[in-house]
Write a structure and sequence with these properties.
The complex is a heterodimer.
Chain A (H helix, E strand, L loop, with lengths): L1 H15 L2 H29 L3 E7 L5 H7 L11 E5 L6 H13 L5 E5 L10 E4 L5 H22 L4 H7 L8 E4 L2 E4 L3 H33 L3 H5 L4 H41 L13 H28 L3 H20 L1 H6 L4 H8 L4 H11 L4 H29 L9 H9 L2
Parallel strand pairs in A: 1-2, 1-3
Antiparallel strand pairs in A: 3-4, 5-6
Helix pairs in contact in A: 1-9, 2-9, 7-9, 7-10, 7-11, 7-14, 10-11, 10-14, 10-15, 13-14, 14-15, 15-16
Chain B lengths: L1 E12 L2 E12 L3 E5 L6 H8 L7 E6 L2 E2 L8 E4 L11 H11 L4 H14 L15 H13 L5 E5 L7 H16 L3 E6 L2 H7 L2 E6 L2 E7 H8 L3 E7 L11 E6 L3 E6 L5 H8 L4 E8 L3 H9 L1 H8 L2
Parallel strand pairs in B: 3-8, 3-9, 6-7, 7-8
Antiparallel strand pairs in B: 1-2, 1-4, 4-5, 9-10, 11-13, 11-14, 12-13
Helix pairs in contact in B: 2-3, 9-10
The chains are: A alpha/beta, B alpha/beta.
Chain lengths: 424, 306
């Protein structure tokens, strides 16, 4: 046992000390935070700039109200949109030409063209250099619509006092029903399931590759026989897989700390800079999801890790390995492809069957647990299948590893590998 | 007590016999060499001794016990296919390997420092293995083999890649270990080393034993039928002389095998007028000549070139 411990220690120290690990561990959460923070910051920065918007109002009666409606303020209290009216003195085409030029010269951010028959169903036009700003377009569209609709309603003889009341928008709250009752949901379930499954997928592949590379390095550097003069091949393989697992847990632990900190303080930070963010509820994740996440990560890691170790022992270099690894990686990719389906109908019989298949279970069963907690017998069955398959794979890989690790030269054929397994 | 007792072991890979009905015994405290051309089965034999490959038949007893995992602590093994973790620091790597042999860290550290000192590698202790030359790495591998002071030391091609200075150092250490009562078994192609330090040899060819026993006795069996000639001049005529059975000519140096019953004195008389003679020695054949005779010239060509 002390030999396995020595191998575990060596693997752990050697990897944890590398720049790759340190950078990856720190960069992971930073990137993750960046994905959340940067869009907020971008919005925050762009908001803080006054924009000149040209308006050509052929109907002659919208501009004043539009100017009144578009009163969004900047942080310092100035108006966000500065509207300028352009009168078409006869030649509309010439005016539009000129405005196009002004937009390109950045004298105007955009201009709005309102046709004469706007109230009778004519379409307004929004012309700008960049038209991907949904927020801005939404503002204009809403303002124009409400002006025109109010006008139409007034035309029908409705009380102007009551029109505002009639036009109040309708809210739509999303709720999620679970065994524990009805909960408010702001889309968090989807985000969290997607996120957890992705983390599991990426770490299993990532650490699997580290095992693969480690075994190949041990073999190609001709270190392995020296080590085997002190221990059994199985001890070396087990030590390597466990050592790298320890690295994985270290990384998860660090990320979890980041995550807890983020969950605790991010809301304060976001709210401080971006008051509207207060409306977004951080979704609360039930603890059992984390428990299952860890169980499925461990099982998935050992299942795929042992397969990767077996493959590493068969080949001479990484290029040869990649050909053999491809089909194994496919087993991890397939569940990602059918994720959308499982998300939509997590308790359909197809989803149930797929999530019981051991090679898919780590991802699909976890996904089902996140979305809609399946009956416990199903979870238990998938875990039992997974454990049995993992034990079988350890047995097969150990037999291949024992012989392969000392074989150099041509990559073995399938028949040869079967023969290896029969060796005493 | 015997350090190794091998009885009738065989190993087949498919239809190919890597080792066939091999037996030999190594008494404790001897230096034993395993000889043979490339692919003869030396490494397979050693791997079977190390329990890395399991023989199909026959038995191996080590230090009067059946080989098991616990026994590995008492053995130092330098494999033929050897290397080191390239990214590890020399000191750390040696400590790791010593730990696998159940050595206490404190003691291991002390011994590592002593050995590095002896091999003049002390300043490399904190360098990564990949920065070392091949010869230096060989020395590190040797340290790893003997760091736990094993009773039985198994060296597969220990001299490959070493310069004359380090070859001598290694040879001295091997003799030192023998004096301490340890047993050394090593395989090699290089007959000079074998002649200098081996007590017993076993010559394997095509998976089978062709010669085994005490080196001096083997040589005596051949008798003093060989002339070593150190000369200057044109000497190709010697091959055709009636006293001569076979020659091995190196240009300035020739090993001549005499026909039975012929007198070396007659040969000398025929040479003195034709070439300049620096040395004329009558002795038993060199191991090299025995090797070539036993294995056959064709098979041994790549061996001689070493």
């Amino acid at each position: 046992m002390h030999k396995i411990l020595s191998v575990i220690k060596r693997e752990y120290v050697q990897i944890v000390r590398t720049k790759g690990f340190i950078i990856g561990t720190i960069l992971g959460p930073v990137l993750m935070a960046a994905f959340i923070v940067v869009p907020i910051l971008v919005q925050f920065v762009s908001v803080d700039q006054q924009e000149k918007i040209g308006v050509v109002d052929l109907s002659q009666e919208v501009f004043v109200e539009l100017d009144k409606k578009l009163d969004q303020k900047l942080k310092d209290g100035d108006r966000r949109y500065l509207l300028e009216e352009y009168e078409p003195k006869g030649d509309v085409e010439a005016l539009l030409e000129e405005l196009n030029r002004k937009v390109l010269a950045k004298e105007l951010t955009a201009y709005i063209f309102i046709p004469e028959n706007i109230a009778e169903g004519g379409e307004a036009e929004y012309v700008a250099e960049h038209v991907s700003d949904f927020d801005k377009r939404g503002n204009f569209n809403q303002a124009l619509s409400s002006i025109i609709i109010e006008r139409r309603l007034k035309g029908e003889g409705l009380d102007p006092q009551k029109i505002g009341q009639y036009m109040r928008p309708v809210g739509l709250t999303t709720k999620k029903v679970t065994k524990r009752g009805v909960e408010r949901d702001t889309g968090g379930t989807f985000v969290i399931s997607w996120f957890l499954v992705l983390v599991l997928y990426m770490t299993v592949i990532f650490y699997g590759q580290i095992i693969l590379r480690g075994v190949i390095e041990e073999k190609s550097s001709r270190m392995v026989e020296i080590v085997l003069s002190s221990m059994r091949p199985f001890q070396l393989m087990a030590g390597k897989i466990l050592g790298i697992a320890a690295v994985g847990f270290t990384q998860y632990a660090i990320w979890a700390l980041f995550g807890i900190a983020a969950a605790r303080y991010s809301k304060n930070i976001i709210t401080k800079f971006f008051p509207a963010g207060a409306a977004f509820d951080m979704p609360t994740i039930p603890a059992y999801i984390f428990v299952y996440f860890i169980i499925f990560f461990i099982l998935g890691y050992f299942l795929y890790g042992t397969i990767y170790a077996g493959i590493g022992s068969m080949v001479n270099n990484e290029k040869e390995a990649q050909q053999l690894v491809m089909p194994v990686t496919m087993f991890l990719v397939v569940p990602l492809l059918i994720m959308a389906f499982v998300l939509r109908s997590p308790d359909s019989s197809v989803s149930v069957v797929l999530s019981l298949i051991p090679f898919f279970a780590p991802i699909l069963m976890l996904l089902r647990i996140c979305v809609l907690l399946p009956p416990f017998p199903q979870i238990a069955a998938s875990i039992v299948f997974l454990v049995l398959t993992t034990i079988l794979m350890i047995w097969i890989s150990a037999k291949i590893y024992r012989v392969g690790i000392l074989m150099y030269g041509k990559r073995p054929s399938f028949g040869e590998i079967v023969k290896w397994m029969r060796y005493r | 007590m015997n350090a190794i007792k091998i009885e009738n072991i065989s190993k087949r890979f498919g239809d190919f016999y890597a080792v066939k009905h091999l037996s030999f015994t190594i008494p404790e405290g001897t230096i034993y060499s395993l000889l043979g051309p490339n692919g003869a089965g030396k490494t397979t034999t050693i791997r079977m001794v190390m329990n890395i490959i399991i023989p199909d038949e026959g038995s191996i007893r080590i230090l009067d016990q059946k080989m098991d995992e616990d026994m590995k602590k008492r053995i130092g093994y330098l494999p033929e296919d050897r290397g080191l973790y390239p990214k590890m620091k020399v000191g750390e790597l040696l400590l790791f390997l010593a730990e696998l042999k159940a050595l206490q860290r404190q003691e291991a550290r002390k011994r590592i420092d002593n050995w590095l000192e002896r091999f003049e590698l002390a300043e490399w202790k904190f360098k990564k293995v990949e920065e070392l030359s091949r010869g230096m790495q060989q020395k590190i591998q040797f340290i790893a083999t003997v760091i736990h002071e094993p009773d039985l030391i198994i060296l597969d091609e220990p001299f490959g890649g070493l310069d004359p200075v380090n070859t001598k150092l290694l040879k001295d250490i091997m003799l030192e270990m023998k004096q301490k009562g340890r047993t050394i078994i090593f395989s090699t192609h290089r007959m000079e080393q074998v002649e200098m330090i081996s007590d017993k040899i076993c010559l394997i060819n095509k998976a089978e034993r062709v010669l085994e026993g005490d080196l001096n006795q083997i040589k005596q069996q051949y008798g003093k039928n060989t002339v070593i000639l150190d000369y200057v001049g044109e000497a190709s005529f010697i091959k055709g002389l009636p006293e001569v059975e076979k020659i091995d000519d190196y240009g300035k140096f020739m090993e001549i095998k005499m026909k039975e019953q012929s007198d070396p004195q007659d040969l000398l008389n025929k040479l003195v007028d034709k070439i300049r003679i620096n040395k004329f020695e009558v002795r038993e054949p060199t191991l090299n000549a025995i090797f070539i005779e036993k294995v056959g010239d064709k098979n041994a060509q790549d061996t001689v070139s070493h």
